[in-house]
Amino acid sequence: MSEQSPRPSKPGKPYRRPQKDPVRFLAFEALRAVDERDAYANLVLPPLLRKAREKGDFDARDAALATELVYGTLRRQGTYDAIIASCVDRPLREVDPPVLDVLSLGVHQLLGTRIPSHAAVSASVELARVVLGDGRAKFVNAVLRKVARDDLDTWIERVAPPYDDDPEDNLAIVHSHPRWVVSALWDSLGGGRAGIESLLAADNERPEVTLVARPGRSTTEELLREEAALPGRWSPYAVRLSEGGEPGAVAAVKEGRAGVQDEGSQLVALALANAPLDGPDEKWLDGCAGPGGKAALLAAVAAERGAMLLASEKQPKRAGLVAKALAGNPGPYQVITADGTRPPWRPGSFDRVLMDVPCTGLGALRRRPEARWRRRPEDLEGFAPLQRDLLSTALESVRVGGVVGYATCSPHLAETRAVVDDILKQYPQTELIDARPLLPDVPELGAGPDVQLWPHLHGTDAMYLALIRRTG
Ligand SMILES: C[S@@+](CC[C@H](N)C(=O)[O-])C[C@H]1O[C@@H](n2cnc3c(N)ncnc32)[C@H](O)[C@@H]1O
């Protein structure tokens, strides 16, 4: 018998080693870090990008694409999960998280970018071969081919319940927010469908990078001359960097004369600084100062008025960041590490007090694309006693006639009005000051006396501020 087979076997496809695409691979690494280590995308990404650039793997366009893939995938996770769930025959929680990350990255390329479908599928399958192996790459291929058959709007229509049947569920899937967050934002915003839809859509946009020219240390004119930037909308100290502007490369930022700061945060600090006050105006306190954005602006304004700022922060590491932010301030200031619920200073010591309390951060979802998925309604219960204690400290720390600013970067009513209402009942010798005139020219601030800023109305984070005067 001949050793040769009578019919030559059909040659199999030769094995081809998967090609590692540095952009997709980096985006996958970042998503894994966010999932496995609870890392923040905005902290994980920059060092990965820097390393890739140093290795010569990346140019600026690659970095922009990797950033878009990571942020877009995380923001749109709720919508993409619903789409993927309808294309696989088991519950999503039974799909391995790394497989789900490759799928979500693929779905984002297919439905959320201009990358052609065939390129999106083949790049994702190639990534799957590198990071998951050939077997699971076939699964990825099958799912993404199904997804590629329709566009985003068609998919959303298919997987979201009709608005009239369940408005919150519909908005949760259409705008990729957890349902409880949709509900909380809507409670705070009020109004009908158009407003909440604009807000949720704004949460999915990348925010502009805004700088603050710290008074006495730099001016907006200087920044506008030196950088590709536009004047801020509301704050006299703000400039908005043009798209792609790198704040880290701005000389004034490197030297601490300017900082990166959302205009909402600037407005809050300035409203407290400008609230009318009788009597001395010499001692200011920031009781929750880390990492120091508002403290640096307050200290600079205080310096111009001959006042001093005490910046206090509980976490030593964050107190270090405050010290860094304040270094070079032209007037007197002090940074201390202290628990604001057990203050080391004497009651009634300050003329102005800012309490920018720890909160869920539901007002800064534009900046933290993963935050909405990580937060739980139970977190509110965790913050509630601390927020009340810190506001009580603020009211104890201010002198009679002095002003307290209670601020959050969350619009959740449980963290804003509920805290202020509760605590003011315990401190009857206080009055709310109308904060609206202290944010001059800013429209749509509601019925007052407190103010709530919104991304879709003001282009800022959803900062909340109540100004309270001690009357006795
Ligand atoms: C929302 S952040 C403040 C942001 C800051 N005002 C800024 O503009 O950069 C809240 C800060 O309060 C700090 N913190 C938490 N518990 C505290 C406490 N018991 N006493 C003082 N600070 C506290 C947190 O570590 C965090 O740095």
TrEMBL record:
Instruction: Give the positions the UniProt entry annotates as the active site.
Output: C409
Boundaries of every SAM-dependent MTase RsmB/NOP-type domain copy: 185-471
Report residue spans for region: Disordered: 1-21
Q: Keyword set for this entry?
A: Methyltransferase, RNA-binding, S-adenosyl-L-methionine, Transferase
In terms of PROSITE patterns, this protein maps to: NOL1_NOP2_SUN, SAM_MT_RSMB_NOP
Q: Where does S-adenosyl-L-methionine bind?
A: C288, A289, G290, P291, G292, G293, K294, E313, D339, D356
Keyword Phosphoprotein appears in the UniProt entry? no
Asked whether the keyword Acyltransferase is assigned, the reply is no
Q: Which family does it belong to?
A: Belongs to the class I-like SAM-binding methyltransferase superfamily. RsmB/NOP family.
Annotated PANTHER family: NOP2 YEAST -RELATED NOL1/NOP2/FMU SUN DOMAIN-CONTAINING (PTHR22807), RIBOSOMAL RNA SMALL SUBUNIT METHYLTRANSFERASE B-RELATED (PTHR22807:SF53)
- What this protein is called in its record is Transcription antitermination factor NusB
- Provenance organism: Streptomyces prunicolor
